[in-house]
Amino acid sequence: MPAYVFTVLDAATASPIEGAYILLACRFDGGTIPFDGHTNSDGKATINTLDFACLSWYISKSNYESQSGTSPSTYTTVYLIPIVVTFTLTIVAAVGGTTDPAPGSYQYESGSEVFISANPQDGYEFDYWLINGVKTLARQFWLTIDQNIEMTAYFTTITVPPTPPPDYTPIVVVAAASLMLVIVGGIAYYYLVM
Fold first, then answer.
1. pTM for the whole thing?
2. Burial class of residue 185 (count of CB atoms within 10 Å of its CB; 0-12, 13-18, 19+)
């Protein structure tokens, strides 16, 4: 009984890839018959093809480029190339401030972490971030890039109370007064007497 042993490794790290799908096409009565399997935690899969000779093979795993070939040997090692997923981070600063990173569009690999900060100009204060339509009040934070992100920093002007004129002198009026209590029919009445 022919059996084929595949070892599937990550091309970037040489680490075993668990769960890779392997499909073999074997000769059968003038046509082909499929045999398939998945790799284990060691990146290995043994596929028993009964008495059929394998003509071609195909291996796939999400986040990796698929590989294929013909006439595998009994022991075949395949290196899958990881697919690098990137996302766009777009940062905008409204009137009254800037950001770090500076306003613009940036490409990051999925899972990257970026420190984000909104920096108000003189006379302004940070108000909020609008991130993919969601409002957040944190002025600075770490952001994990796992999708395309559009974010805008908003600022408001600082309201300063008016300064009194330099010759401002408070006027205090003092008057002598007394309070008089009068009770009429059980009702108390208070009178201010000057």
1. 0.54
2. exposed
